[in-house]
Amino acid sequence: MKVLNLTGELEKLIGEIASQVRELNHVDPSRVLVCVASTRGGGVHGTYAKIHALRFPGGERTSAMRRGSKRVTCTMPTITHRGMEMLYVVYFLVPRFLNLSHREKLITVFHELYHISPMFDGDIRRFPGKNHAHGSSRKKFDAVVAELVDEWLRSRVGAALPDFIREDMESIRAKYRVIVGRRLAAPRIKIEKE
Q1: Which of 7, 38, 54, 139 could form a disulfide with 182 if both were Cys (CB 3.0 to 4.6 A apart)?
Q2: How many CA atoms lie within 13 A of 118 on its CB side?
Q3: Residue (of 18, 21, 25) closest to 154 by Cα position
Q4: What is the Cα–Cα distance from 94 to 180, expressed in whole angstroms?
Q5: Which residues are 51's β-sheet partners?
Q6: How crowded is residue 68: how many other Cβ atoms within 10 Å of its Cβ?
Q7: DSSP 3-state assignment of 81?
Q8: Which is it for the CA torsion 48, 10, 132, 84, positive or negative?
Q9: How far apart are CA 93 and CA 89, in angstroms?
């Protein structure tokens, strides 16, 4: 019986991307926990992936903030894998992610990796202004990511992409009897009143 370890394949792909794409060389794949989560529908509309940074700005584990009239202290959870503390958790939502075209799958992977702070301190890449996650324009953010994908693909002429990138969910299911992946409940920030 052929088994597709989707988590393992995504980890290999992320390692390859981080080592080959200058703008993502700061990513240490051994500190990024790759997981899968289920979606209700298999269509391609909705979220394909999401990233959870495990630190606040500046790489801080805790942050004091106001919630209404009260002050609270927020503490990020500690997540370890293979004896190493993780700084990020990335979830790929299946089957929705697997039903994308090969280019859209790669754009999704690059998009999540591009969110990782260039300092690789557990925080996200922050842009000035109100929308600090994507900057003043989500369209510009997506265009930067798409160009990184296209450059990477041009640099790999003749190199094969993994099955799960080239094929849709139906083709993958026909080839593999079982698809497995790491699951983890979404990290929860601990909130304490001061």
Answers
A1: 7
A2: 5
A3: 21
A4: 11
A5: 90
A6: 6
A7: strand
A8: positive
A9: 13
Domain parsing of the chain, residue ranges = 3-54+79-185
First to last CA, the chain: 55
| Surface-to-core class of residue 23, CB atoms within 10 Å of its CB (0-12 exposed, 13-18 middle, 19+ buried) | middle
For the stretch 131-164, pLDDT in tens is: 888 988 899 999 999 999 999 999 988 888 998 9
Give the containing element (helix H, strand E) for 172. helix 169-175
Opening angle at CA 124, ends 22 and 152, nearest 5: 25
> At 154, is the secondary structure helix, strand, or coil?
helix
Q: Which two tokens stand for residue 89?
A: 């958790």
CA dihedral 166, 167, 169, 171 (to 10 degrees): -160
Q: In whole angstroms, give the CA distance from residue 14 to residue 49.
A: 14
C-alpha span between 10 and 36 (Å, rounded): 10
Is the CB of residue 64 less than 8 Å from the CB of residue 130?
no
Q: Which residue has the tokens 């994507």?
A: 134
Pairing of strands 88-94, 32-38: parallel
Give the mean pLDDT of 74-99: 95
Torsion of CA 102, 104, 110, 111, to 10 degrees: -160
What CA–CA distance (Å, rounded) separates 190 from 1? Answer: 43
